Amino acid sequence: MINTIYAELPRERITYTIRPEFISGQEQKFYDALKKSITKSGIKDPIFVYYQSRTWGNKLKTIVGQNRMVIAKELNIKMIPCVITQFDAENSDLKGKVLNTDEEIKHLFHMPKHVEVRRKNGWVYSVVCNIGGGRFVDEQYYKLY
Predict the structure, then answer these.
(1) What is the pTM of this model?
(2) Domains in the chain, CATH or no CATH each
(3) What is the SS3 assignment for 91?
(4) Candidate from 29-38, 75-84, 113-122, 134-143 with smallest mean pLDDT
(5) How deeply is 67 buried, as exposed, middle or buried, from its count of CB atoms within 10 A (0-12, 13-18, 19+)?
Protein backbone atom coordinates (compact mmCIF):
# COMPACT_ATOMS: atom_id res chain seq x y z
CA MET A 1 0.00 0.00 0.00
CA ILE A 2 1.23 3.50 -0.87
CA ASN A 3 0.70 6.26 1.67
CA THR A 4 1.92 9.77 2.40
CA ILE A 5 3.11 10.81 5.84
CA TYR A 6 4.63 13.83 7.54
CA ALA A 7 7.66 13.32 9.76
CA GLU A 8 10.83 15.08 10.81
CA LEU A 9 13.81 12.98 9.80
CA PRO A 10 17.54 13.14 10.55
CA ARG A 11 19.29 14.96 7.70
CA GLU A 12 21.88 12.19 7.39
CA ARG A 13 19.21 9.64 6.37
CA ILE A 14 18.00 11.69 3.40
CA THR A 15 19.75 11.54 0.02
CA TYR A 16 19.65 14.54 -2.29
CA THR A 17 21.24 15.93 -5.43
CA ILE A 18 23.64 18.85 -5.32
CA ARG A 19 22.94 20.97 -8.38
CA PRO A 20 26.26 22.42 -9.66
CA GLU A 21 24.65 25.67 -10.80
CA PHE A 22 23.24 26.21 -7.30
CA ILE A 23 26.58 25.94 -5.49
CA SER A 24 28.86 27.40 -8.20
CA GLY A 25 27.55 30.95 -8.03
CA GLN A 26 25.39 30.81 -11.17
CA GLU A 27 22.30 31.10 -8.96
CA GLN A 28 23.91 33.24 -6.26
CA LYS A 29 20.91 35.52 -5.70
CA PHE A 30 18.63 32.52 -5.14
CA TYR A 31 21.25 30.74 -3.00
CA ASP A 32 21.73 33.82 -0.79
CA ALA A 33 17.97 34.43 -0.43
CA LEU A 34 17.28 30.79 0.46
CA LYS A 35 20.13 30.68 2.97
CA LYS A 36 18.95 33.90 4.58
CA SER A 37 15.36 32.59 4.81
CA ILE A 38 16.39 29.25 6.33
CA THR A 39 18.84 30.93 8.72
CA LYS A 40 16.10 33.25 9.94
CA SER A 41 13.07 30.92 9.95
CA GLY A 42 14.29 27.36 9.50
CA ILE A 43 12.91 25.13 6.77
CA LYS A 44 9.38 26.47 6.50
CA ASP A 45 8.01 24.03 3.96
CA PRO A 46 8.65 20.27 4.06
CA ILE A 47 11.00 18.48 1.71
CA PHE A 48 9.31 15.86 -0.53
CA VAL A 49 10.84 12.42 -0.20
CA TYR A 50 10.20 9.03 -1.79
CA TYR A 51 10.82 5.89 0.25
CA GLN A 52 10.81 2.27 -0.90
CA SER A 53 10.37 3.17 -4.56
CA ARG A 54 11.43 0.85 -7.36
CA THR A 55 14.12 3.28 -8.47
CA TRP A 56 15.73 4.12 -5.10
CA GLY A 57 14.74 1.18 -2.90
CA ASN A 58 15.14 1.87 0.82
CA LYS A 59 16.88 5.20 0.33
CA LEU A 60 15.01 8.30 1.42
CA LYS A 61 15.33 10.20 -1.86
CA THR A 62 14.59 13.93 -2.06
CA ILE A 63 12.24 14.67 -4.94
CA VAL A 64 11.51 18.35 -4.19
CA GLY A 65 13.80 20.40 -1.95
CA GLN A 66 17.34 19.62 -3.17
CA ASN A 67 18.51 23.20 -2.59
CA ARG A 68 16.99 23.35 0.88
CA MET A 69 18.89 20.16 1.74
CA VAL A 70 22.18 21.73 0.59
CA ILE A 71 21.56 24.75 2.83
CA ALA A 72 20.40 22.54 5.73
CA LYS A 73 23.71 20.68 5.62
CA GLU A 74 25.67 23.92 5.43
CA LEU A 75 23.78 25.30 8.46
CA ASN A 76 24.05 21.95 10.29
CA ILE A 77 20.28 21.56 10.65
CA LYS A 78 19.80 18.12 12.18
CA MET A 79 16.08 17.38 11.66
CA ILE A 80 14.30 17.99 8.36
CA PRO A 81 10.51 18.33 7.98
CA CYS A 82 9.40 15.90 5.25
CA VAL A 83 6.35 14.80 3.34
CA ILE A 84 7.18 11.19 2.54
CA THR A 85 5.53 8.98 -0.04
CA GLN A 86 6.04 5.41 1.12
CA PHE A 87 5.65 2.89 -1.67
CA ASP A 88 5.52 -0.11 0.69
CA ALA A 89 3.89 1.38 3.79
CA GLU A 90 3.10 -1.97 5.41
CA ASN A 91 6.82 -2.77 5.66
CA SER A 92 8.08 0.72 6.45
CA ASP A 93 10.16 1.55 9.50
CA LEU A 94 9.11 5.23 9.30
CA LYS A 95 6.50 6.58 11.65
CA GLY A 96 4.66 9.81 11.13
CA LYS A 97 1.31 11.50 10.69
CA VAL A 98 -0.58 9.89 7.82
CA LEU A 99 -1.77 12.57 5.40
CA ASN A 100 -5.08 11.45 3.90
CA THR A 101 -6.37 14.68 2.40
CA ASP A 102 -5.02 17.60 0.42
CA GLU A 103 -6.14 19.90 3.24
CA GLU A 104 -3.87 18.06 5.70
CA ILE A 105 -0.96 18.57 3.31
CA LYS A 106 -1.79 22.22 2.64
CA HIS A 107 -1.87 22.85 6.41
CA LEU A 108 1.88 22.11 6.52
CA PHE A 109 2.60 25.09 4.28
CA HIS A 110 2.49 28.78 5.14
CA MET A 111 0.37 30.00 2.22
CA PRO A 112 -2.32 27.31 1.94
CA LYS A 113 -4.72 29.34 -0.19
CA HIS A 114 -2.14 29.42 -2.99
CA VAL A 115 -0.98 25.82 -2.63
CA GLU A 116 -1.88 23.11 -5.14
CA VAL A 117 -1.29 19.47 -4.25
CA ARG A 118 -0.38 17.42 -7.31
CA ARG A 119 -1.11 13.70 -7.37
CA LYS A 120 -0.35 10.88 -9.76
CA ASN A 121 -2.04 7.49 -9.40
CA GLY A 122 -3.27 8.55 -5.96
CA TRP A 123 0.08 9.56 -4.45
CA VAL A 124 1.43 13.05 -3.89
CA TYR A 125 4.34 14.02 -6.08
CA SER A 126 4.50 17.78 -5.61
CA VAL A 127 3.08 20.79 -3.83
CA VAL A 128 3.40 24.03 -5.74
CA CYS A 129 2.27 27.60 -5.37
CA ASN A 130 -0.05 28.98 -8.05
CA ILE A 131 1.32 32.42 -8.94
CA GLY A 132 -1.23 33.07 -11.67
CA GLY A 133 -1.15 32.94 -15.43
CA GLY A 134 -0.80 29.17 -15.38
CA ARG A 135 2.56 29.44 -13.60
CA PHE A 136 3.54 27.41 -10.55
CA VAL A 137 6.64 27.52 -8.35
CA ASP A 138 7.95 25.61 -5.36
CA GLU A 139 6.40 27.07 -2.20
CA GLN A 140 9.58 28.21 -0.37
CA TYR A 141 11.02 29.64 -3.60
CA TYR A 142 7.88 31.77 -4.01
CA LYS A 143 8.31 33.26 -0.55
CA LEU A 144 11.83 34.44 -1.32
CA TYR A 145 10.84 36.84 -4.11
Answers:
(1) 0.79
(2) 3-144 (3.90.1530.10)
(3) helix
(4) 134-143
(5) buried
